Amino acid sequence: MCLQLFVFSELPPPFSFLKNKELTFVYCLHKALMVECWCHSICSSPTLADQIAPSFSLRSLVSSGKCILERIKHWLIIDIFLFLCISVWSIGESPPEETEKHDDSQRSTLFIEKPQSGSVSVGGNITFIAKVEAKDLLRKPNVKWFKGKWMDLASKAGKHLQLKESFERHTKIHTFEMHIIQAKENYAGNYRCEVSYKDKFDSCSFDLEVTESSQAAPSIDIRSAFKRSGDGQDDAGELDFSGLLKRREIKQQEEEPEVDVWELLKNANPSEYEKIAFQYGITDLRGMLKRLKRMRREVKKSAAFSKGLDPAYQVDKGGKVRFMVELADPTVELKWYKNGQEIRPSAKYIFEHKGNQRILFINNCTMTDDARYYVTAGDEKCSTELFVRDPPILVTKGLEDTNTYVGERVELSCEVSEDDANVKWFKNGVELTNEPKSRYRIKVEGKKHTLIIEEAAKNDNATYSVMTTGGQSEAKLSVDLRPLKISLALEDQTVRLGQEIHLKCEISENVEGKWYKNGQLIEASDRVKLYHKGRIHRFIIASAAVDDEGEYMFVPDAYNINIPCKVHVVDPPKLHLDGLGENNTVTVVAGTKLRLEIPITGEPTPKVMWSKGDKWITDSGRIRAETYSDSSCLVIDTAEREDSGPFRITLKNEAGEDSALINIKVVDVPDPPQAPNVTEVGEDWCVMTWEPPANDGGSPILGYFIERKKKQSSRWMRLNFELCKETTFEPKKMIEGVAYEVRVFAVNAIGTSKPSMPSKSFVPLAVTSPPTLLAVDSVTDTSVTMKWRPPDHIGAAGLDGYVVEYCFEGSISTDQSEELMEPPFNLEADEWIVANPELTDKTKFTINGLPTGSKILVRVKAVNAAGESEPRYHPQPILVKEVIEPPKIRLPRHLKQTYTRRVGETVNLVIPFQVRTKNTDRKTLNTHFSYATASYLLFLYVNLGYWTAFVNILHPEGKSHDKASGIIHSYLGTKIGHYHMSSQSN
């Protein structure tokens, strides 16, 4: 039977046993174990175990690492947690059922073949194989090999360690191999293979044992070479784990468990190496680890040495050590070496020969002698290690308890047995370091070690200890406060608003402190100044405010006392009008309620009075005043326009008086404007104007809305949806000939006014188009006759007549217009004269009274109910002067024939001719004449007989005389052959 022991991390609590009552105990292991176990030994008596074994059972939980002891009925198992041993049967085979259960619990999720533990001799080769089935895997799994807990072997692959992997396509199995070549002794240990794929993970541990040759090296207690010696007590030289465990009283024990320092260092965290080495007196920790590895190597049998050196030697500093070898052949020459350097005889190194024995003495050993030594005999070599141990450092004079005051210098001193020894200081178990920024300073003077605290504080109250390799000492430091005396207390103050508040106190100790106001901590700021100089503390506020009134208190740090005082700030009454508008104006809409709250301050509470003009406002009515401790309200239930005006508020108390005027402005919609006037009317438009309303309601007019309707309709239509800023508007898109009315609304920030009265009804009428074909009919020395045609478009308003206007050339611009072929007259420079004060319905008009030789411009306008049309201009200036031209007879072709008539018959001949002459002379000869200025028609009514007719046309100026004469000869009874008409000039 093989018995395995496990270290418990948790034991059940103490208990009391009741007869015939079952109990259950839980033992927690350091790691989970898969065991099927039975308790075989409760104490040293197998017979007793046989008696009580059936009275309980033990099972283990693999997942949580717990062993559970159940169904305890026997009172002899009271101390079970002190003797419990978990054993696994190894003799014989388990029942088939149990074996199958064990295999199922160990079944892997990824591995189909796990690496198995193995052993190999030094210098041999070994291979570990792990297989993973890839049937359900989409890619190759990730495999890692570890030694111990954390060493990844992928970084160690090389000559002695090779990692290989392969894949069989037919079987779809990944094979991972770890080859160890020429195994060394330090290759032994626990290994682990981990495989992972996505969220799956599996791990397998196995051991490698490296065996040595049949001739093992002589055993040696390695721990004894490194453990510190005691101080002469019975437990001298033994390891003490009390520094790693909870601090407790040191008790004398007859037996203590042997502790393997190598195992302790191997299992400890690297951060604890130095602490363990210091505790067990190991001065060369790194050297120890290296040497332990070398000492495990196989020691081969030597032919030159019948007896070699021991694996290691130990000597105290200043002592003497003896190395001895025994030669098989005494004639062989020996050489001694230290760390590879040959040793020569001297006072320190003494060589001695005794038969086959060769001895080396090293006197007065120092730390430099701590090295590796070996001796050579020909090609043979024998080596050993020498460990020089410092003697344990003893505390010859321990620490003493100290009482001091805050701020004092503290020195805790002790003396040790050696100069400049390695000493560690602790505060409540926490090591203190001698860093530049640390409050603690460590001073060493030979054997005296001192811990210095320059200025002790309350948090320095602690237990201080000093530890050496051979002892320790501790002492308590108590830091108290000095008794505090108040030299100058704070005084109550009464200050006016705006004055300085200066609080001053003096105490016996130079300590910091804090200021409080009404229990609240006060911090220094730009307004609040806190001063501390020596034992005097000051509190200054340059300008006192009302909020600064209260109870002040100074509390020294670390003392349970306070220095109080009261500050009373006298505040004259004051009105706070910051929330009001410019010039303290408050605007309210008519018809709404006004509640104007004015914050007030003053101590004591001032009396508030409101007034408007000479009338005081009471606390009742539509307009009333309400007064509170920190404010006063003016209330107007329904504001009216008459409420506008200044209101005065007055505050009075014993400290002073304050008053202010507050302008109440009641705003309302504006009054309606006056009825608009229609100044112009067009075909479908008109121009309307109006005056702003007399009262804008207390708010500026923003614009106007315009509406119109047909006179016979009652539905008004808004013409603009954006406010009209001007007082002139032009409605459009009206129907010609239909009567309309318009009205206006005024708009301000409050709203829209009532509509104005409607305007007088108007009918949109269009003026006619300009007259057409304006031309000169005739010109005399004093008159000009113009003619024209009616307009092309007259419209619904009809045509009332024409207006003829003229002006003299030079009174207007005479530039020609390319488009209209008319001059673009400058109407401002025109001096048009109306020729006909009354309208004429004729299309011809004579302008009389014109100066001879002048040039005039003429225009004609058509007039109807809508007004005057655009004028029609004559394109050229007209010269006022009659033109005389010689007469021209234009004989028609039919008159060139021969007429035959009887005597007595009337002959009517129409002979056209053209002549321009003055109208001063007119002569007719038994003939009727009809003529015009531009052309004349001559009608001859002749009774056939014997006569001659002459027609004379004289020019008015008489400059030329043209005579047209026609002669008709008539003979009775004789046929008239022809007539002859001629024209002659006189």
UniProtKB/TrEMBL annotation:
Start and end residues of each Ig-like domain: 391-478, 573-663
One record GO biological process: sarcomere organization
Keyword check for Transmembrane: yes
GO CC field: M band; myosin filament
Protein name: Myosin binding protein C1
Gene3D superfamilies given in the database record: Immunoglobulins (2.60.40.10)
Species of provenance: Meleagris gallopavo
Record Pfam families: fn3 (PF00041), I-set (PF07679), THB (PF18362)
PROSITE patterns, per the entry: FN3, IG_LIKE
Keyword Secreted: no
Transmembrane segments: 929-954
